[in-house]
Amino acid sequence: AAAPHCQAPVLIAHTRNDKLVNVAHSHRIWEEYGGDKQLSVFDGDHNSARPEEFRQHARDFLVDCFQKEEEAAQGSTPGWRLARARVERRHGRVGLV
């Protein structure tokens, strides 16, 4: 399994009543994931509209990731973000992929 080796931050979202993918799958990935992780479980089924509370959580998560990316670019935060920045420069990319 790759999850223990992953270091990029991840937000895992799942609905409680998903009949296509059991919510236990997300819990298992969350438990095994090696990097910063957050799990959000909310009401709905596989195709339900995501509640505003989750959408705000996702926005906050992304803002936090970009702020940490900016800190890394300034040399104040070590970790996966610096390594990712080096890889992106090597491939001619700028910013998050």
Task: Write a brief caption for the model.
With 97 residues, the chain is an alpha+beta fold. It contains three helices and two strands; from the N terminus they run E-H-E-H-H.
Show the helix and strand layout.
Layout: E1 10-15, H1 23-32, E2 37-42, H2 52-73, H3 80-90
Parallel strand pairs: 1-2
Q: What class, by secondary structure content?
A: alpha+beta
Series of secondary-structure elements, N-terminal to C-terminal = EHEHH
Number of helices: 3
The poorly predicted ranges are: 81-97
What report would you give on this structure?
- There is one protein chain.
- The protein has 97 residues and is an alpha+beta fold.
- The protein is 44% helix and 12% strand.
- The protein contains 3 helices and 2 strands.
- It has a two-stranded parallel ribbon.
- The longest helix is centred in the middle third of the chain and has 22 residues, at 52-73.
- The two termini are 23 Å apart.
- The model is unreliable at 81-97 (pLDDT under 50).
